């Protein structure tokens, strides 16, 4: 058992918990980094985790487009096809031929869901390929090693969890030679 994590900032005046878990925290907590390994969604929903995952993808040349130019949901622009989907495109997106065909047909008659198939395909590729490699990478292991472990508060969760007392050992646990007492005549000869 360990002590409490930093106290709840809603109940006390201590805001340590918020500072350690802020979206812009320079060094994430160990619990936060471990949480990224629970699921791909956990990693993507955390801004710090997402930034480190993008760094990993860039180092592996998996990043299709730099993050500042990539909004959450981008509507297709006129040059979109030439830049990402056309054969020999400078930043070709890795999707299968069937998904590519459906996307190109949809771009002929654009609608709001035209890129959903391509987005799902890329998401699944990252989830099944890039994400497991990220968790096994030195980058993730270094993040885990450098992560902040929050200091425990003085208050204990369970009051009976105190330091053990240093008392004398029980006579039952002593070796037989040390516990032998002189007998008063019980028939030894």
Automatic annotation (TrEMBL):
Annotated Low complexity bias: 167-179
Residues in the signal sequence: none
One MF annotation (Gene Ontology) recorded for this entry: GTPase activator activity
GO cellular component: cytoplasm; neuron projection; plasma membrane
InterPro entries, alphabetized: RGS, RGS6/7/9/11, RGS_sf, RGS_subdomain_2
Region (Disordered): 159-189
UniProt cross-references to SUPFAM superfamilies, sorted A to Z: Regulator of G-protein signaling, RGS
UniProt keyword terms in alphabetical order: Signal transduction inhibitor
GO biological process per UniProt: negative regulation of signal transduction; regulation of G protein-coupled receptor signaling pathway
Pfam families membership: RGS (PF00615)
Annotated ranges, domain RGS: 39-144
Name the UniProt record assigns to this protein: RGS domain-containing protein
Organism: Monodon monoceros
Gene: RGS11
């Amino acid at each position: 058992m360990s002590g409490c994590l930093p106290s709840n900032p809603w109940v006390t005046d201590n805001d340590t918990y918020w500072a350690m878990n802020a979206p812009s925290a320079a060094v994430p907590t160990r619990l936060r980094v471990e949480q990224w390994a629970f699921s791909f969604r956990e990693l993507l929903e955390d801004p710090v985790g997402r930034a480190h995952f993008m760094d990993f993808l860039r180092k592996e040349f998996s990043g299709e487009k730099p993050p500042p130019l990539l909004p959450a949901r981008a509507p297709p622009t006129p040059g979109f096809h030439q830049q990402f989907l056309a054969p020999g495109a400078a930043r070709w997106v890795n999707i299968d031929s069937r998904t590519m065909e459906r996307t190109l047909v949809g771009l002929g008659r654009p609608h709001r869901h035209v890129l959903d198939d391509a987005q799902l395909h890329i998401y699944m590729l990252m989830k099944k390929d890039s994400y497991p490699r990220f968790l096994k990478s030195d980058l993730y292991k270094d993040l885990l090693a450098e992560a902040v472990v929050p200091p425990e508060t003085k208050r204990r969760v369970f009051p009976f969890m105190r330091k053990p007392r240093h008392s004398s050992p029980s006579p039952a646990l002593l070796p037989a030679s040390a516990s032998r007492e002189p007998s008063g005549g019980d028939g030894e000869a």
